[in-house]
Amino acid sequence: MNALDLSKVKNFLRKNIPCVILVIISFILLIFVNFRQNQTEGIERTIDTISVKSSLIEKQMGELRNIASDLKNYKDLEAALYKQCFDFGNRTAMYKFLVKLEKILGKNSANIAISNTYNLTKNRTVALNQDTSEYVGDFLLVDFTVNLQATFSTAITLLKTLKEQKYFTNIKQLDLKEHIENTSREGTVDLSKKEPKINATIVFSMLGQIGQGGDRA
């Protein structure tokens, strides 16, 4: 029976060779199409993954560019701030600064002194009349006290000069009192012909740091 059936199948195949070929070809094409479809879907998934990763990388690169830009702006700002900090380690610069103020006051009776020096970095009071090399790079806030007996215009000139300094300067205290001239009956002074004087106490603070040179002469 099996031999008979096998014989019939063989006869059928011989008589229908074109159909058999078409079936085989169709089967091969079906396998090929299915393989190509799976391959295409795999490629599409890979492309989608690459696209997502590419978008993520572009986003990260954009953020890095923003960070780089912000960092540059920060460094530029930091450099500008450093330029506006007085170098309290440079005694020559300190001397020139005090001489400049004294020239404004002229021959008026005045006294300029450092009243307080606070190390902002180490959070403690320090003294500038010593070796400051241990404070190199530290930020300081220094208070100056000016006691003077001068005309009102001289005091105003001093205040304007302090305001126009390229350094960070802040007026902390300003006390103005009328100066009473001591006159006698024998030597009366005509006050209407001269600008009246005032007694003034001015306290101002200046932000700075000890430069890389430390305590320099």
Describe the structure in your own words.
This protein has 217 residues and is of the alpha+beta class. 50% of the residues lie in helices and 24% in strands. It is rod-shaped, with a radius of gyration of 45 Å. The model has no long low-confidence stretch (mean pLDDT 77).
Low-pLDDT runs of 5+ residues are: none
- The residue fraction in helices comes out at 40-55%
Radius of gyration, CA atoms, in whole angstroms: 45 Å
Relative strand content: 15-25%
H-E order: HHEHEEEHEE
SSE class: alpha+beta
Our count of helices gives 4
Mean pLDDT, rounded to whole units? 77
User: What is the total tally of β strands?
Assistant: 6
Brief sketch in words of this structure:
50% of the residues lie in helices and 24% in strands.
Architecture blueprint of SSEs:
Layout: H1 2-15, H2 17-83, E1 86-87, H3 91-105, E2 109-119, E3 124-125, E4 139-151, H4 152-163, E5 169-178, E6 197-209
Parallel strand pairs: 1-6
Antiparallel strand pairs: 2-3, 2-4, 4-6, 5-6
Characteristic key phrases:
single chain; alpha+beta; 6-stranded mixed beta sheet; 4 helices; 50% helix
